[in-house]
Automatic annotation (TrEMBL):
HAMAP family: MetX_acyltransf. It catalyses: L-homoserine + succinyl-CoA = O-succinyl-L-homoserine + CoA. The active site is at S157 (nucleophile), D322, H355. It is an enzyme of class 2 (transferase). Residues 51-359 form the AB hydrolase-1 domain. Its EC number is 2.3.1.46. This is Homoserine O-succinyltransferase. Substrate binds at R227, D356.
Length: 382
């Protein structure tokens, strides 16, 4: 960490916890009698509360989207490249809100929280949540913050799904929805990847049916394998080839099954690090929420009919080498928006990093994202 913070950083930030005592009815039929959301905010809310932007995180994300928690923190928040003074989501103009989703493992109520009915951690008893449940809890957060209408709801990957769901569930409470590297629903292949990841966790002997906390253990190997599978799908073949190629760690074959190639070492490192910071039950919840997301489901598969109730404008961005959420999935979304006579701007950005490209500030990506958010800011007088 440098002695001083970058000029375009939001600086040192402190998460806040908001408690909601009103029961929250979930799509699965269960309710949470009370719940907490951990939130970070950046920038200032203007006098008429019109400049608020909601940032929705992806599967392994959380509330810490920008800035630093202390001068000792090595890396800034996960989307610091796009949030801050002069960046696409300009905190000199917007009041930015980023919550850790319900069911998360970074402070919001989830499997690691205490179940008031038992006095123990929820563990596997925490109810299955959906993207719609997250949006409902975010609407309660907006009420608490006094925000009647978001200038924009913005997200990448699973976050983009939340932005789309916002436009359907609360059409009069957002002016713009920005869906980046996202999809209107998962393909069978994507659901298959999620199932492999879940089975890696569930089959870990330390999982104990999700009650690993009672056994004072963690299914680290399962989490590690799940992350390795996921990480492979987030990168393009070209990106992995450029970064690692077929380089050997010791420049010679060892004719065994240990770590010999650099890419193997990298994946194991990523998996091990993830297993130390993420909760297994939360991973199961998040991937299942991904699987279930399909706003066209109640409209006989016709997304344009689902979008007929939306009133906001959309920005949809995809990346050429993203094979997890391909440009074709974004184009499917855009075509449905056009059929529903919604206003939408779309761009496919040429970038070599696969799905992770939405986290990397390339010039064309930055230019398009910044230009759109500049228009959003001007509309609300920010």
């Amino acid at each position: 960490m440098p002695d001083s913070l970058p000029a375009d950083s939001v600086g040192i930030v402190t998460p806040q916890t908001y408690r909601f005592e009103t029961p929250l009815k979930l799509a699965c039929g269960q309710s949470l009698e009370r719940h907490d959301l951990v939130v970070e905010t950046y920038g200032e809310l203007n006098a008429d509360r019109s400049n608020a932007v909601l940032i929705c995180h992806a599967l392994s994300g959380h509330h810490h989207a920008a800035g630093y928690h202390s001068m000792d923190e090595r890396k800034p928040g996960w989307w610091d490249a796009c949030i801050g003074p002069g960046k696409p989501v300009d905190t000199n103009r917007f009041f930015v809100v980023c919550p850790n989703n319900l069911g998360g493992c970074h402070g919001s109520t989830g499997p690691n929280s205490i179940n008031p009915e038992t006095g123990k951690h929820y563990g596997p008893d925490f109810p299955v949540v959906t993207v719609g449940d997250w949006v409902k809890s975010q609407a309660l957060l907006a009420d608490r913050l006094g925000i009647d209408c978001w200038a924009a709801v913005v997200g990448g990957s699973l976050g983009g799904m939340q932005a789309l769901q916002w436009s359907l569930d609360y059409p009069d409470r957002l002016r713009h929805a920005v869906a980046i590297a996202s999809s209107p629903r998962l393909t069978a292949q994507n659901i298959a990847f999620n199932e492999v990841a879940r089975q890696a966790i569930i089959s870990d002997r330390e999982f104990h049916g999700g009650r690993y906390d009672d056994h004072d253990t963690v299914p680290r190997r399962g989490l590690m394998l799940a992350r390795m599978v996921g990480h492979i799908t987030y990168l393009s073949d070209a990106a992995m080839g450029e970064k690692f190629g077929r380089e050997l760690r010791d420049q010679a074959y060892k004719f065994g099954y240990g770590v010999e190639f650099q890419v193997e070492s990298y994946l194991r490192y990523q998996g091990e690090r993830f297993s130390e910071t993420f909760d297994a039950n939360t991973y199961l919840l998040m991937t299942r929420a991904l699987d279930y997301f399909d706003p066209a489901y109640e409209f006989n598969g016709d997304l344009s009919k689902a979008l007929a109730q939306a009133t906001c404008e959309y920005l949809v961005l995809s990346f050429s080498t993203d094979w997890r959420f391909t440009p074709a999935r974004s184009e499917e979304m855009v075509n449905a928006m056009i059929a529903a006579r919604r206003k939408v701007s779309y761009a496919e950005i040429d970038a070599p990093w696969g799905h992770d490209a939405f986290l990397i500030p390339t010039p064309r990506y930055n230019a398009i994202f910044s230009a759109y958010m500049d228009r959003v800011a001007r509309e609300v007088g920010a």
